[in-house]
Amino acid sequence: MNILRTIRVSLRALGRNKMRSFLTALGIIIGVGAVIATISIGQGAKREVEKRFESMGTNLLFVRAGSRSYRGVHGGGGTYQNLTPGDAKAIAEKADAVKYVSPSVSTRAQVIYGNKNWNTNIQGVGEDYTKIRDWEVEEGIFFDESMVRSGQKVAVLGSEVSQNLLEGADPIGQIIRVKKIPFRVIGVLETKGEAGGWFSRDDMIVVPYTTAQRRLIGRTDRVSSIDISAVSATQTTEAKKQIEEILRIRHKIAPGAEDDFQIRDMSEIAEGAAESREIMTILLGAIASVSLLVGGIGIMNIMLVSVTERIREIGIRMSVGARERDILLQFLTEAIVLSILGGFLGIGLGIIGSKLISRFSELQTLVSIGSVALAFLFAGSIGIFFGFYPARKASKLDPIEALRYE
Amino acid sequence: MENNRLIQLEDIEKIYKVGETQVNALRGLSYSINEGDFVAIMGPSGSGKSTLMNILGCLDKPTAGKYFLEGEEVSTLDKNRLAGIRNKKIGFVFQTFNLLSRTTALENTELPLLYSNMSKKKMRELASKSLSTVGLEGRELHRTNQLSGGEQQRVAIARALVNSPSLILADEPTGNLDTKTGKEIMDIFKRLNQEKNITIILVTHEPELAQIARRRMHLRDGQIIKEENA
Fold first, then answer.
1. Does residue B218 fall inside a structural domain?
2. Cystine design at A239: which of A115, A125, A230, B65 (Cβ 3.0–4.6 Å)?
3. For chain A, what is the mean pLDDT?
4. For residue B80, which residues of chain A lie inside 8 Å, CB to CB?
5. Does A80 score more than 70 pLDDT?
């Protein structure tokens, strides 16, 4: 019997017992719905994290000092500062996949304005910093290349610093003191919010890195890291390669030896954060799939009842020439049709469910094609797995006894 | 008229094991049936009628002996090949009709064709033709439960005929019918045998019914005790 005909025969058989078929499929419907809805919560959380990282700039690359081994002893990453402003300049000039480069140094200091003070992070960066970080200046201006070159004492405030320190005064033109050095405020950055942790990106002050080196850190030959943006998101890998080549030459690293710096891109950092959400998703999905399993057992149960009820029919079919395979396929198809129909309805239920969740709670949900396909495949496999035993039982019946069965 | 040999049974034995005891249902039975024969198998219950009928119908295999159907030895075939033989060469008519419930006459008649690759259209055509042979034209779409006993048995005969089998096996086909309807059913068999030269094997314990057959085989304790050829 060909497969289309088998499906038609199964649909007919299931249609004879509509209520029972529906209740049997309900196990799968709820199971698939639960899987899709719970996965959508996990995926939603993951998407949130990714979005937050995207807001930091997508084609971002960071270079920082790597571990250095000195006579066989490895130091930790970043323990030794070996990046120089010259490195940054060389990257800007030679790597064509690179668009903007900003050397970066940082320190923490008490910032004083009038009779108020605030402890915050001082970032010394290059003039392209805002372009790399995809960050707008909300008020005033950002320092330009000539200000960086001449090491002017100008500062751009994070919005939180501006609020806490200046408390509503027009920030532009105010003088703040950092380690007793007066800085003129020339701008305020737009609010970015938390970066997926407890630290706020708005709680900091940005100054030219040259100024920070000379006035705040007291060392002009080193930078702690270099922020870089690639020409485009697709060029990050190429940019990474070029940067590595340039730095290896500049740092005189022998072929085969390890880099003494690290290059990381934003996607790597975002991946780490997304991974924890991924684990949550898997966990939730696993719990939900238990209900799918229970649904599968329901199918097996009903199929066994159905086989017993229809022993006579099986006998008749065998007497007119149905082979074992025909009977097996007939009952297996019924189980698969049940679970696949259940799967379809379950997908609908899951999508509606996840919409309701995001509407009536704080949770963001995202139904991905992947999770739908997964749940559907899972439902289909459950049909095959739990349908096989009853179908096999049916196919192994002896036609003579089956015909005589009352 | 010289007929072709359709069935050849050689020393057929069938032994059932029921727990510890052995039951010898058939003990060395030999017989042959030609194309176009109408044979009645008779005997009291326990004589081995049903066993013989199951073997003839390829539902069961003999423990020993050989069964040739149209020259092919079927006693050695596996289950699936036997199913194929039943599908192509044998039509069954049972005492209890054995139709699918809540299914139309037409679909019941089509059932054997489902298991032989055939287009839907061709199936319809053959099944309708078969139903009209047994006088049920116009009732194709009636469901089994809307038909009388006699009509149900006609559907069963139509189903047995639909694949143009070499052989029709009827097991007490009138057992569940009143005398008048039973006679009508027997007339159909007679007509099929005479007009279409279809080979019919009838299992019965009623001597009057057996009179219609041209050959009679009397069974007792798994052996042929008497053969009559008209």
1. yes
2. A230
3. 87
4. 323-325
5. no
Tell me the shortest Cα–Cα distance from B230 to chain A, in angstroms.
Answer: 31
Residues from chain A contacting residue B106 (CB–CB below 8 Å): none
- Rounded Cα distance between A336 and A378, Å, is 11
The structure tokens listed for A377 are: 């495949």
**CA A286, chain centre distance (Å):** 19
Query: Does A1 touch chain B if contact means CB atoms closer than 8 Å?
Result: yes
Q: Confirm or reject contact between B80 and chain A (CB < 8 A).
A: yes
pLDDT tens per residue across span B5-30: 999 999 999 999 888 888 899 999 99
Question: Is 80 exceeded by the pLDDT of residue A1?
Answer: no
How many CB contacts within 8 angstroms connect chain A with chain B?
Answer: 60
Here the CATH number for the domain that contains residue B201 is: 3.40.50.300
Find the domain containing B192 and state its range.
36-64+78-229
Is the pLDDT score of A58 beyond 70? no
Q: How many domains does chain B have?
A: 1
Would residue B29 count as lying in a domain? Answer: no
**Tell me, what DSSP letter sits at residue B143?**
B
> What are the helix (H) ranges across chain B?
49-56, 79-89, 105-114, 120-133, 149-161, 179-196, 207-210
Query: Using a CB-CB distance cutoff of 8 angstroms, which residues of chain B are in contact with residue A319?
Result: 57, 59, 86, 92, 98
Is there a contact between A319 and B79 if contact means CB atoms under 8 Å apart? no
DSSP H or E segment with residue B7: strand B5-18
Q: Please state whether the predicted TM-score (pTM) of the whole model is above 0.90.
A: no
Establish if B107 belongs to a structural domain. yes
**CB contacts, 8 Å: B114 with chain A:** 1, 5, 9, 322
Task: Confirm or reject contact between B59 and chain A (CB < 8 A).
Answer: yes
B2: closest CA of chain A, how far (Å):
30
Residues of B in contact with A318 (CB under 8 A): 59, 83, 86
Of the candidates A311, A301, A337, the one whose C-alpha atom is nearest the C-alpha of residue A395 is A311
Q: Note the maximum CA span of chain A.
A: 104
Chain B residue nearest residue A325, CA to CA: B80
Residue B71, in any domain of the structure: no
The mean pLDDT of B166-180, rounded to a whole number, is 93
CA distances A279 to A273, B37, B118, Å, are 11, 76, 53
